[in-house]
Write a structure and sequence with these properties.
Structural class: alpha/beta
Shape: elongated
Helix content: 25-40%
Strand content: 15-25%
Mean pLDDT: 87
Number of strands: 40
Length: about 1050
RNA sequence: GCGGGUGUGCCGGAGCGGUCAAACGGGCUAGGUUGAGGGCCUAGUAGCUUAGUGCUUGCGCGGGUUCGAGUCCUGUCACCCGCACCA
């Protein structure tokens, strides 16, 4: 047989496909569309190896299959080309990441094209191109404008190797996902976040809508992790003194001041409330001076201003030297235009310019109260204030507006320190004996008293030095903060500890600790000798309340809990919550583990975040018209963020007021780029828009997404979030981007490890392609196992596949085109039917097995139709050689564009195929006997068959059932039948079931009425084969000696 | 600890509750073909048995459901993956 010139065949067909633009996807509403997408690769410098080939082959087979099935297929490829490796390589080589990236991409494209992948290359995109990242910036601004982006100081994850912060999703096991050996550090930094949490609920519930592998769904579910519970407000005891400032024309003897003063004093607070001078004709300077002179301001001071008092208090804060504890603004305003648009006569007397930066510096905490019903000061003023001084805004609805009501619990609450905690066990609230705040909490220090400062700081130092990684074995540790909280139901004061086992950004970062009923709290309480109070009793009463050995976390009934005592604890959860709600002390709530997405990165090779810092206007988004904000080229790689080294990038003008301003220098997490690339493919060349709506509406959502499972909680969450956010911004009209997801396995090298350049166990497609042809490699990779499993490369294995490919070739060289036998046609149609399902379900390995079996049964003469259908079936897997063979049997068209064969059920003939099976068995048996007896020229062959041969008794029973459905008559038949007789007892039990549902009996070979008849039919074949006389005899039960012990299951053969 | 998955020959892997478990591939052994090797072809590859068309065992282990279980249920063990102090 002539050698196959694989390279020539591959190049020939790749060129022809390309010239004919067979894979170009065009919007065509007359056809059903199919969007098949692979996760686009990061173009690493080391190029493609067999592992990549495996991944892409999975999608290519699917796309080709779908195309042949009449779908208008979109199958694109692009490159996730921003990212750290290129930047690091550039630093090493003192070059530019662009150079590395673009070379790598060119290399990728060349290699991918050589694999014969049927991509529509016209849609190729690269995320590092300005044309692409311009839209990243545009989306970012849209999100910002819609309150989906914010900047905040937080405890963030820092990877030293990456030299940047990371999102929560990108930290695995306390380490960076790219550097599993490198522990991340916690740093307090101000960073950009995207409000993914806004969609937490939808991200969770919509998992139902999509057909994804179960484990991926579960991983996302765990990641979002919803839990139901109760939010309860605990008041924090503080050593505070209050200064109250009243409003215009007011007095501290009026309105809510007397109430507030009494309530505060009731709680042991010092309250200084002195009437401001000249309140009907105020003078700011005079009043400020008065306040400063008559009151003492220190770190324990809470300044409360009402109405006009808010202005005075802001002015006071501009003047003082040391920061105070807290500022409460009850009905504050910033500009003199009021709700009814009437200027008050006093407003001219005020200077409405504030030094907000200084104010912020001089106070640790700001609370702004705004009254929705206020006719004096509208809500917008509250919001404006909030924006300027970055305080917490509380919207209230008082019975009488403008905080004049006698009783103003909201103002009192704002003055006091309250902490809402989240618990899933409100039923144990009577067992709270202490509180624990996270050691990483931003506001921890505000709870620490002077006396405890040293101890807490010691503790913080200690836990910083312990490893993040093995938190599980970490002993629960903490330090007393010096502060106390009041249990809202019992009124008990309990100590607040800082603890290492509380997560800062889940719930409120503080927990109520019930040592009797929570293991962690229990361990902590034991260590620090904190009392343990049992409030849940097991139903069997088996609990030693004085000597708990561990926390009792099971269900039971409530004790020691006043009116709730005696309730089942599940019921108590509801009752306690209801009670708290009625007292305005808490409410039912849900919590998610999902955090907002931290997207700032302090690195160069990414999309610049399009924000601008203006001294006057604050943080401002760049103008859409100014996009793209290009990455500067005049940069020096070295210490820190390279963008800072650019001379002109930093300086800009404020888009609002045109004064000098500074650009944001952080770039975006590259997961931002990959969160919407599947949309861009639909219209990848569009210069004016992110994409054309009609294109996206036609192609999306992605019908089949293919990629690795490592992105379960990263890319796949972000992309789902993006889809929902863009939908709500009006860009999309669907909820989920990827309807179906397939996780491919990984290819391992000879050494059993995942194939990778760095491990040095790669097999290159080029090498294999030259020797065996890329089709052989595809065939082999897909035949090993189901493509969702990890597989191992084997040189021997590909030899086996090559044998098949070669024999297909040589078969086509010698086959006579004529007529196909009935049984071949039957087998062909069966294969079509089964393979169609197998490929549809990604069971490529099974499809290949069936194809091999079909090939085995092909005869030296077959019809052109049969041969063509065989090629069609093989085509998605081995596209090049099948095209070649397709041409060789006289076709001028492309096999690629030929419709997938349809199964003709009527041609499937179980009996015909079964006969073949018998024929083969009998032939093989005869051959065995011949060789054992060393007979070369048999004179006569006698085949002795038993009654039972090839019968299951059920099949026989089915025959009888077809004759009669009467139980008694049936049993008569059974007893008269040699075969069934033995099973009579069983049959007696089965019959009722079978009569109910005859399907219980498998349909297989039911029509094998008589083995004799069957064998008679193949007698001629055997005669021909062995060139001798054939006799078929049915054995008498009694004469068949061996059969008496047990019935033979195969025919006996006697040769003379 | 929690959640998910997987356990079938020498290996990768098939096996709708019912044909004859181990298809198909790889490996290995023997024979044939060939100057040798390779390639190709044929047969064998759980145990017992002189041999068989015979017998026994057999789908991680133990129970159960069923006339019938590799397949369904349950418990258990082992391995793999994911999450991990989330109150």
């Amino acid at each position: 047989m002539a050698e196959i010139d694989h390279i020539a065949i591959q190049e020939k067909w790749q060129k022809r496909w390309n010239d004919a633009k067979l894979f170009k996807a065009v919007l065509d509403k007359s056809k059903p569309k199919f969007y098949c997408l692979e996760m686009f690769p990061y173009p690493s410098g080391s190029g493609l190896h067999m592992g990549h080939a495996f991944n892409y082959t999975i999608g290519d087979v699917y796309s080709r299959f779908k195309r042949m099935n009449g779908f208008n297929v979109l199958y694109p490829m692009g490159y996730d080309s921003f990212g750290l490796p290129a930047e690091n390589a550039a630093i090493k080589a003192k070059s530019h990441p662009r150079k590395f990236t673009e070379e790598a991409i060119q290399n990728f494209i060349k290699q991918q094209k050589a694999l014969g992948l049927s991509y529509d290359w016209d849609r190729m995109l690269m995320t590092h191109s300005e044309e692409y990242y311009k839209w990243n910036q545009s989306i970012f601004i849209k999100l910002f404008e819609n309150d989906m982006v914010y900047k905040k100081k937080a405890s963030v994850n820092w990877c030293q190797k990456c030299d940047t912060v990371l999102a929560n999703e990108q930290v695995h096991d306390g380490c960076c996902w790219r550097h599993p050996e490198d522990e991340i550090q916690i740093r307090q930094l101000e960073q950009w976040f995207i409000k993914t949490t806004k969609y937490a609920e939808e991200l969770l519930t919509d998992l139902e809508k999509i057909d994804w592998p179960k484990r991926i769904k579960i991983m996302q579910e765990n990641w979002i992790s919803k839990s139901f519970g109760t939010e309860i407000e605990f008041e924090i005891e503080e050593n505070t003194n209050f200064v109250l400032l009243h409003g215009y024309n007011g007095s501290v003897k009026k309105d809510f001041f007397p109430y507030l003063k009494t309530e505060l004093e009731k709680r042991g607070k010092k309250v200084s409330a002195k009437d401001l001078p000249n309140t009907s004709d105020p003078n700011v300077a005079e009043q400020v001076e008065f306040v400063l002179k008559n009151n003492h301001f220190d770190e324990n001071t809470v300044l409360v201003g009402h109405s006009l008092g808010t202005i005075i208090s802001l002015k006071v804060l501009e003047k003082i030297q040391k920061p105070i504890k807290k500022l409460v603004l009850a009905g504050g305003f910033l500009t003199p235009d009021f709700k009814d648009n009437k200027k008050r006569d006093f407003t001219d007397k005020f200077d409405f310019k504030f030094d907000f930066e200084k104010i912020k510096r001089n106070v640790n905490e700001i609370v702004i109260l705004s009254d929705k019903n206020d006719y004096v000061i509208p809500l917008e003023q509250g919001h404006k204030l909030k924006e300027k001084i970055n305080g917490d805004l509380i919207e209230t609805t008082a019975k009488i507006p403008h905080f004049k009501a006698e009783h103003e619990p909201d103002v009192l609450n704002a003055c006091l320190k309250k902490w809402k905690i989240f618990t899933t066990r409100p039923d144990t609230i009577y067992g709270v004996t202490f509180m624990v705040i996270s050691a990483q909490h931003q506001k921890l220090m505000s709870l620490v008293t002077k006396e405890q400062k040293n101890e807490v700081e010691e503790f913080l130092k200690k836990i910083k030095s312990t490893s993040e990684k093995d938190t599980e074995e970490l002993e629960k540790e903490g330090a007393f903060t010096g502060s106390y909280a009041t249990n809202p139901l019992t009124g008990d004061k309990v100590p607040i500890y800082a603890g290492n086992f509380v997560v800062a950004d889940y719930g409120s970062g503080m927990v109520m600790a019930v040592p009797a009923h929570d293991q962690r709290d229990y361990e902590f309480a034991k260590k620090y000798s904190i009392p343990i109070k049992v409030v849940i009793n097991p139903n069997d009463n088996k609990i030693d309340k004085n000597n708990l050995l561990k926390a009792y976390i099971e269900d039971g009934y409530v004790i020691n809990s006043r009116e709730f005592s005696g309730l089942n604890n599940e019921l108590a959860k509801d009752k306690v919550t209801e009670y708290l709600e009625s007292k305005n002390l808490g409410k039912k709530t849900v919590q998610y583990k999902l955090r907002d997405w931290l997207i700032s990165r302090q690195r160069y090779w990414g999309t610049p975040i399009p924000m601008i810092y203006c001294g006057k206007c604050g943080i401002v988004a760049a103008k859409i018209d100014d996009l793209p904000i290009k990455l500067p080229e005049d940069i020096i790689f070295g210490e820190g963020n390279p963008i800072l080294s650019s001379k002109h990038f930093l300086k800009t003008r404020c888009p609002k007021c045109n004064s000098d301003a500074r650009r944001e220098t952080d770039t975006m997490d590259t997961f931002f780029d990959s969160s919407w690339y599947y949309l861009r493919y639909t219209d990848a060349k569009n210069q004016n828009e992110m994409f054309d709506r009609e294109q996206v509406d036609y192609w999306l959502p992605v019908d089949q997404y293919i990629g690795g499972a490592e992105h379960a909680c990263m890319h796949l969450v972000y992309a789902r979030f993006f889809t929902k956010a863009l939908r709500d911004l009006g860009y999309l009209s669907f909820d989920e981007p990827f309807l179906k997801l397939f996780n491919q396995g990984m290819l391992h090298g000879y050494d059993g490890f995942v194939m990778s350049k760095s491990r040095g166990n790669v097999v290159l497609p080029e090498t294999i392609s030259e020797k065996y042809g890329i089709d052989t490699a595809r065939f082999f990779l897909l035949s090993i196992a189901s493509p969702d499993k990890d597989i191992e490369w084997s040189d021997k294995g590909i030899e086996g596949s090559y044998r098949f490919i070669k024999s297909v070739f040589s078969y086509f060289e010698s086959v006579k085109i004529g007529v196909s036998q009935k049984r071949t046609v039957s087998k062909l149609n069966r294969t079509i039917k089964e393979m169609t399902i197998d490929i549809e379900e990604f069971k490529y390995n099974l499809a290949i097995i069936k194809l091999r079996m079909l090939f085995e049964s092909l005869k030296s003469e077959e019809s052109k139709d049969s041969l063509e259908k065989f090629l069609m079936l093989l085509h998605p897997i081995c596209p090049h050689i099948t095209e070649e063979l397709w041409e060789s049997i006289g076709n001028k068209t492309f096999l690629t564009t030929t419709p997938w064969p349809k199964c003709d059920e009527s041609k499937i003939d179980d009996r015909e195929e079964f006969m073949e099976q018998i024929e083969m068995t009998v032939k093989s048996d005869i051959n065995t006997v011949l060789s054992l007896a060393k007979i070369t020229e048999p004179k006569k062959i006698t085949i002795i068959i038993s009654q039972e041969w090839k019968y299951s008794f059920l099949s026989r029973l089915k025959e009888k059932i077809d004759e009669t459905r009467d139980f008694r008559e049936l049993m008569m038949h059974v007893l008269l039948d040699e075969t069934l007789k033995k099973h009579a007892q069983n049959i007696q039990k089965i019959i009722p079931n079978v009569l109910k549902d005859p399907k219980k009996i498998p349909p297989v070979m039911l029509d094998q009425h008589s083995e004799k008849k069957t064998l008679e039919q193949i007698k001629d074949v055997l005669k021909n084969e062995f060139k001798t006389e054939i006799e078929i005899v049915v054995a008498e039960e009694s004469t068949h000696a061996k059969a008496q012990a047990s019935m033979p299951s195969k025919p006996a053969i006697v040769i003379e």
